[in-house]
Design goal:
heterodimer; A: about 625 residues; alpha+beta; Penicillin-binding protein 2a (Domain 2); Beta-lactamase; 2 domains; about 15% strand; B: about 375 residues; mainly alpha; two-stranded antiparallel sheet; about 70% helix
């Protein structure tokens, strides 16, 4: 028995020793593995642990303001009070929502949406109940806070346009980025972040936006924030200063009233736009909060196109306002002199066609002065026939017609100045003489935008400098150069004597009792304005209609009525401002457009910075140095 | 040997001879566990540390009782205990299939008992009892091996149905160790190994989808960092970022920010290694090594085959807990849900381990006792 037991013990000892060896071998392997993880690979895992632990959160920058030329804010950031609910701190969410509804009225749909969102999000993530709260509601919520566990009020930023509809087309509006706007910049993906969707907001989105700050947060695996480790403030967006005078803009909008049309007032030396009004308009504030489908449809389907910036995207036949271009082309060609006369019998026969003057009984013998002042059509048929369409087109192009003018607000359209080659290429037919005559009075194929008409007028009266329009003072380098007497704009190379002749004839339009805008002249002795009226036919008047007596404009449906136009400048001595007014389907240029131009121009001269605050450095004017020029 | 002491020590002698230094080592290890549970609750005794402490107190008392009981009683009751545990295991299985889901425990009111944990001790007891009755050359005969094979296979079959792959494999490995120590021949192990290798493709078919997934995940955790591989990956990040000296007590970011899963149970070693670094982790492994060495030392010193086998088998069982758990959190074994003994939060495991040490100490106290093959004194 003893020997058997000894055998058994030896056997056990042997095998147990092997087993023990194996165990310690494996424990040593564990130590080796630990060494590998915690020493050899440690750095890599430390990085991964930090990545786990630290969450970068963007701090959206405050959007830059937009200021008018006097520094008046026209687009600002308002505090956006939001009600949030954190289900973690709310024992009975539906009950609290019901109590909340007594203060800020939440309807059933909204309640369902909130409850759904609360279910979907983690319980420590606040869910937005309502944005854009009124201050009174905030106060009432604060008072009732003890009854609303888990409900908090949070302040964000929201874009606000204090002038509402007055400059909607210029300023534009902001909205949430669309898929195609996403550039990979995480800022754009922040909920509630807005980017410029149109106007200045869009054109200057980059500088206005600024750069995001970042907050380093320590978070748990489910994303709950433990504390902020580090914070880098971003740069708030830059302010953009406009050349526009907001008070004047409002006045122009008011003056346009119910009409669908536009007014552009331009500084003739700098090209800065003082007014750029377009009616009807819309409230950009509504876009910030998000439009309903119905609201959007109402805007988009409106016959008077409130969403379109008519000043830059409305293309109209310039009518008689185009006659200066034709006259200038003829003078430059040497085809006429101011003394050249043509006989107007009320119409003109060319080939089979008969071309009428607006005055059926005719003007008799007409020279350049009367041709412009009384806007005789036959006179311009004659000279257009002499110089031909391509000569007219070349002159029109020098004045900025027929092409985009690189305005710093998107949406500009180019209009159209027809040429023979254009017609062959686009319509596929040869040019006919009758079309030259019609173009000579700014009808037919010719299309211009109000912005182009204002630019044309400015170039005519600023000594022949090819000014370009702009709305933001960011182009001040140009204005600075002008202020230092180093005009940057190139000359359009038109004989100054010819420009002087034209300016004199435009003076007659308002001065001469027979002038088409005499009734709409400025009567104040300290102010003066010259200009040119235009009435653009929208539809062709048929021969039968003409014989049966043309119906009065007012009798036609709105969309067939003539466009009323006026271009002008003021003061007559040392012109400072050019203006263009287009009233869609408004009727006659002299009866509708000219009075609007007069009233806006009086306001403009009233609000001339030199008059308001002599010597002040005002945006778009370049400061006191300019006073001498 | 009888002249140096009595084969049957008195109660007083037993108390004096009890290996108190082993008890101290156990208390020390468990205390590390309390500290880690305190940290896992972000510096709170609730909900884990305090409850673990009271369980440990109960377990410690049970351990001492078990240690003081005459080892022959354990030998005689080995089969009944085995039968009782198998019955409990079957009860859990039946209740589970009746519609309480994959339940692995019995609710005893104050305590939830996991029969599969206790089963491991029962298997060791039963096998020690069985091999105690055979000489080495007899034990290795095939006709004497089918009963112990049944003893091992029956609980494995039940545990697998739960299904608890981790426990099944531990029972198999402990059983294997007992066969190895009891006298099975080398070629027999070869045959079993070959059989297992052949059975693996078949067994694969019977694995649950989540078990297959665990194995895939184990093979390449980085392939699915947010899904099933998340636990292993986060555990490795926690370990690795601990570095040489760790992030400090209560400072483990992975554990306190909840990136580390199950930090109070299966992944508690990771938290320790994150907060105390390589020094702390290796320190704990060394402590475990000491406990294991103590168990082996006791096994070598026993005169009876039963005590030898029992002490060594229980030590192997303890070792398997330690090794599988640590290897699992370090990503060298699949996640099979084995706790870290004496440290992980959990009642049954704590109790089982302490009872196991109680039995080892009983072996120590009765080390010089010759026991005949039926359980009487020689």
């Amino acid at each position: 028995m003893n020997s058997r037991d000894n055998d058994r013990q030896k056997f056990f000892t042997r095998r147990a020793a092997l087993l023990a060896g194996g165990q310690f071998g494996l424990l040593t392997a564990l130590v080796g593995r630990m060494y590998y993880l915690q020493v050899v690979e440690s750095e890599r895992y430390q990085t991964l642990a930090e990545e786990n632990r630290i969450n970068m959160r963007l701090i959206p920058p405050s959007r830059g303001r937009i200021l008018d030329r006097f520094g008046v804010p026209v687009a600002v950031n308002q505090q956006n009070y939001r009600v949030l609910i954190k289900s973690e701190n709310t024992p009975d969410v539906p009950a609290v929502l019901d109590r909340l509804a007594m203060i800020i009225s939440i309807d059933a749909d909204e309640k369902a949406r909130i409850l759904k969102e609360i279910r979907r999000t983690k319980k420590f993530v606040p869910v937005t109940v309502r944005e854009f709260l009124e201050w009174e509601d905030v106060a009432r919520l604060e008072v009732n806070a003890p009854d609303l566990p888990g409900v908090t009020i949070d302040v964000g930023e929201r874009r606000f346009y204090p002038n509402g509809i007055a400059a909607a087309h210029v300023l534009g509006y902001v909205g949430a980025p669309r898929r195609e706007d996403l550039t990979g910049d995480p800022l754009l993906e922040l909920p509630g972040f807005r980017i410029g969707r149109s106007g200045i907001e869009r054109a200057f989105d980059k500088p206005l936006r600024g750069s995001a700050g970042a907050s380093q947060l320590e978070v748990t695996a489910v994303g709950r924030v433990i504390r902020e480790l580090d914070r880098q403030e971003g740069d708030k967006g830059r302010d953009v200063v406009l050349t526009m005078d907001m008070a004047l803009q409002r006045a122009a909008m008011r003056r346009l009233g119910e009409e669908a049309g536009s007014v552009v007032v331009m500084d003739v030396a700098t090209g800065g736009l003082i007014v750029q009004a377009s009616t009807p308009s819309f409230d950009p504030n509504a876009f910030t909060e998000g439009l309903s489908n119905a609201q959007w449809r109402a805007l988009a389907d409106n016959e008077r196109a409130p969403l379109r910036n008519k000043a830059i995207a409305g293309e109209y036949a310039p009518g008689s306002t185009f006659k200066m271009i034709v006259a200038l082309a003829a003078l430059e060609e040497g085809v006429i002199t101011p003394r050249s006369r043509y006989f107007c019998s009320g119409h003109m026969e060319v080939g089979d066609g008969r071309f009428h003057c607006w005055r059926r009984e005719g003007h008799g013998h007409v020279d350049l002065e009367r041709g412009i002042a009384e806007s005789c059509d036959v006179y311009f048929y004659e000279i257009a026939r002499k110089i031909g369409i391509d000569t007219i087109a070349k002159m029109a192009e020098r004045f900025g017609l027929g092409s985009k003018l690189a305005l710093d607000v998107p949406g500009e359209r180019s209009g159209l100045i027809p040429t023979k080659s254009w017609k062959r290429a686009v319509i596929g037919q040869p040019w006919v003489l009758g079309e030259t005559l019609v173009a000579g009075i700014g009808q037919g194929f010719v299309l211009t935008t109000p912005l182009q008409l204002a630019t044309m007028t400015a170039r005519m009266v600023n000594g022949g400098k090819a000014v370009l329009p702009h709305l933001a003072r960011d182009r001040m380098f140009r204005e600075d150069m002008i202020a230092r007497g180093k005009p940057e704009y190139p000359s359009i190379n038109v004989d100054p004597a010819h420009l002087k002749i034209l300016m004199d004839t435009m003076e007659k339009v308002t001065d001469d009792p027979r002038g088409t805008a005499h009734a709409a002249r400025i009567k104040r002795p300290d102010m003066s304005m010259a200009g040119k009226t235009g009435t653009a036919q929208v539809r062709r008047i048929s021969l039968r209609e003409r014989e049966s007596g043309v119906r009065k404009n007012e009798e036609l449906p709105w969309r067939f009525r003539d466009h009323a136009l006026f271009v002008g400048y003021a003061p007559i001595e040392n012109p400072r401002y050019a203006i263009s007014v287009v009233v869609e389907h408004g009727g006659g240029g002299s009866s509708v457009a000219a009075p609007i131009a007069r009233d806006v121009m009086i306001e403009t001269l009233e609000r001339d910075p030199a008059r308001l605050a002599p010597g002040a450095d005002v945006a778009g004017l370049g400061g006191p140095e300019r006073q001498g020029t | 040997m009888a002249q140096f002491g009595t084969a049957q020590p008195t109660f007083r002698q037993k108390l004096l001879r009890l290996n108190w230094e082993l008890v101290l080592l156990i208390i020390l290890t468990a205390s590390i566990g309390f500290a880690m549970l305190y940290s896992a609750a972000n510096g709170n005794l609730d909900p884990w540390a305090s409850r673990q402490m009271s369980r440990f107190a109960v377990g410690l008392a049970m351990m001492l009782c078990v240690a003081l009981i005459d080892i022959r009683l354990w030998l005689r009751t080995a089969y009944p205990i085995y039968a009782l545990c198998l019955g409990l295991l079957a009860a859990v299985e039946i209740m589970g299939s009746i519609g309480m889901g994959a339940q692995r425990w019995l609710n005893l009111g104050f305590f939830q008992l996991q029969p599969s944990e206790v089963m491991k001790i029962a298997v060791i007891l039963a096998l020690a009892r069985y091999f105690h009755g055979f000489d080495v050359d007899e034990a290795g005969r095939l006709r004497n091996l089918w009963i112990p094979v049944l003893i091992v296979v029956a609980p494995i079959a039940l545990v697998l149905r739960q299904p608890d792959l981790g426990t099944a494999m531990t029972v198999a490995m402990v059983g294997g160790a007992m066969f190895w120590l009891g006298g099975a021949r080398l070629w027999q192990f070869g045959v079993v190994a070959a059989g297992v290798a052949a059975a693996v493709p078949v067994a694969w078919q019977f694995l649950h989808a989540y078990q297959k997934q665990r194995i895939f995940t184990f093979l390449s955790p980085e392939s699915d960092p947010l899904g099933a591989g998340y636990h292993i990956l986060q555990s490795k990040i926690a370990l690795g970022s601990g570095g040489m000296f760790g992030k400090g007590f209560l400072e483990g970011t992975q554990s306190h920010l909840n990136f580390l899963p199950e930090k109070q149970t299966d992944f508690i070693f990771t938290m320790l290694a994150e907060e105390f670094g390589l020094i702390g982790g290796v320190g704990l492994i060394a402590l475990y090594g000491l406990l294991i060495a103590y168990g082996i030392f006791i096994a070598f010193r026993c005169r009876s085959q039963f005590a030898r086998l029992l002490a060594m088998g229980l030590t192997v069982n303890f070792f398997l807990y330690v090794f599988i758990n640590i290897a699992m959190v370090m990503g060298i074994l699949p996640v099979v849900g084995v706790p870290l003994p004496l440290i992980s939060y959990g009642g049954t495991a704590m109790l089982t381990v302490l009872i196991g040490f109680g039995l080892i100490m009983s072996c120590w106290l009765h080390r010089d006792m010759y026991i005949n093959r039926r359980g009487g004194l020689a």
